[in-house]
Amino acid sequence: MHAYDFAAPRSIRSAIDRAGGESAYLAGGTTLVDLMKLEVMTPSRVVDINRLPLKGIRVDGNGLRLGALERMSDVARHPGVRSRYPVVAQALELSASQQLRNMASMGGNLLQRTRCGYFRDTSTPCNKRLPGSGCAALTGENRTHAILGTSDSCVATHPSDVAVALVALDAQVELYGPHGRRSLPLGDFYRLPGNTPHLENHLLPRELITGITVPSLSWARHSGYLKVRDRQSYEFALTSAAVALDVSGGVVREARVAVGGVGTRPWRLPAVEQALVGRRTTEAAYEQAVAHAADGARPLAHNAFKPELLRRTLVRALTTVGEL
Amino acid sequence: MASRSPSTPPHRDGLSRRGFIGRTGAVVAGTAAASAPLDTARAAPQSAPAQQGENLVAVALTVNGRSVRLMADPRWTLLDTLRERLSLTGTKKGCDRGQCGACTVHVEGRRVLSCLTLTASVDGEHVTTVEGLSDGEHLHPMQRAFIAHDGFQCGYCTSGQIMSAVALVGEGHADTDDDIKEYMSGNICRCGAYPFIRDAIKDAREEMR
Question: B57 and A6: CB-CB below 8 Å?
Fold first, then answer.
């Protein structure tokens, strides 16, 4: 690990003042400490934000608000989250392990870095880690990589599960930086890689995520998260689907659909949402609605199975949620 | 070179682990873990070698009920501090990348991975390691159950399994076989002792209630 200074400020203002240059904010540490050991991230200063007043879970008529420092496990077990936004609780519980969920913060989860093996290996080229060095995954081992939103510079997936659920629910991220506070739709927060895959989101220098909000959505009670992976637990997604359905009289009135494991960022599917409206809650109807879910996909040498797996994942998730 | 100095703490005596065990024997190392090292840790500010880096952080924490003060290199993980500074070698270093669970300890009563926890970030907190579970020679019910059910083969993952299992029961995630499998999935056992680990947990949970 490279040497760095360490600061543990107690106010948001002070944290922002201590940040800058090559600094990194530390919350749960499950991404940062790992990547510092691998020398993929080499900050000259680590600003520990765990003492900042950024906790709290609120579920009320306005929706859901999560403080950025709430831990994944605490959000997952919150009774209000479980009953009114089950897709959020399920996405969290299907992520990582209980030890990691006890550590990892909600804000940090949204900012976790890709699991692409070439990004994590400093002996190989990677445009995300070292801009302009090339992409080893394009011609290398790419079975787990993205098929949507990719470019010739980068095919790495965004690894978060809960970000997929939150994008489906129109979540916003609250940000605080040197120029004050602002908020952005989470769906717009992430950038496509294009030819600058090292720029993953729209955070400004020294800016912090302070909270996450989800607008009220009564039928989010009828939601769920399905994750398909190489082992049953403690593994990243090959494909995943976050689904919420407003069903009345056996017919879909409204739908929210986003997918993970396939995109360079959490991937909302508005065309599938539209195609679901007015359909019966039958498997055959779902199959028709998701027929074009992977349109525009660019499969790689080892992941040509992903478009079909994605459609089947969606049908299974819709069937499960439709029966709730 | 300064920026690439060793990021793990030097052993408290300047001895290699192999040399230490070779000279004193495992039994002595085991008893030393219970008493001497915490006093050594208090003397750490004066003894911190130059190659540790220039920006040491004063850290005070409680480990297994005892107060510990030390000057920590910001790069030291809790795992390395426990093993190399405090000689609490019951906590194991498996992958050192947050993937295997061998380093599981409790911080403020919650199970976490000590390999991804910076020592500087647990200032003021309470840490429990496997050495802190037993009451003297009287083992914790989970320790006894692991022995009774052969919940290990090589034993390397065992302290992490036990720390995770104790927390699991407290979380209320030990009620069904499916829950035990799911919520213990962060602790990998290369010997494949999983069925016996599950039996041990089911046995111990009754006694822990």
Answer: yes
Residues of B whose CB is below 8 A from A234: 185-186
Whether the Cβ atoms of residue A10 and residue A51 lie closer than 8 Å to each other: yes
Quick check: B94 contacting A, CB < 8 Å?
Answer: no
Asked if residue B208 lies in contact with residue B142, where contact means CB atoms within 8 angstroms, the answer is yes
**B91 touches A: beta carbon within 8 Å:** no
Cα–Cα distance measured from residue B90 to residue B104, given in angstroms and rounded to the nearest whole number: 10
Return the bridge partners of A255, or none: A245
Looking at the structure, do residues B128 and B145 belong to the same domain, yes or no?
A: no
Q: Are A227 and A240 in contact (CB under 8 A)?
A: yes
pLDDT tens readout for residues A124-141: 999 999 999 999 999 999
Q: Which of B82, B101, B132 is the last residue of a domain?
A: B132
CATH number, domain with residue A232: 3.30.390.50
Residues sharing a CB contact under 8 Å with residue A91, sequence separation 6 or more, in sequence order? A161, A162, A164, A165, A225, A227, A240, A242
Query: If residue B22 lies in a helix (H) or strand (E), which one and from where to where?
Result: helix B17-32
**Domain containing residue B30: CATH number:** 3.10.20.30
Structural domain boundaries enclosing B201: 141-208
Chain B residues close to A98, C-beta within 8 Å? 111, 164, 167-168, 171, 173, 183, 186
**Chain A residues with beta carbon closer than 8 angstroms to that of B116:** 29-30, 33-34, 100, 103
Q: Which two tokens stand for residue B88?
A: 């609490």
Look up residue B106 and give its two tokens.
Answer: 């409790």
Alpha-helical (H) ranges within chain A are: 12-18, 32-37, 72-77, 79-84, 86-93, 98-103, 106-110, 162-168, 186-189, 270-276, 283-289, 306-322
Q: Kindly indicate whether the ipTM for this predicted assembly is greater than 0.85, answering yes or no.
A: yes
B171 close to A (CB below 8 A)? yes
pLDDT of A172-228, one tens digit each? 999 999 999 999 999 999 999 999 999 999 999 999 999 999 999 999 999 999 999
- Is A216 among the domain residues? no
| Sheet of A57-60, strand order | A57-60, A63-67, A208-215, A172-177, A180-185
d(C-alpha A134, C-alpha A121), whole Å: 13
Residues in chain B: 209
Q: Which two tokens stand for residue B30?
A: 């085991």
Tens-of-pLDDT digits for all 209 residues of chain B? 334 445 666 655 444 443 443 333 333 333 333 333 444 443 333 333 434 456 899 999 999 999 999 999 999 999 999 999 999 999 999 999 999 999 999 999 999 999 999 999 999 999 999 999 999 999 999 999 999 999 999 999 999 999 999 999 999 999 999 999 999 999 999 999 999 999 999 999 999 98
Question: H or E stretch including B26?
Answer: helix B17-32
Check A34 against B98: CB less than 8 A apart: yes
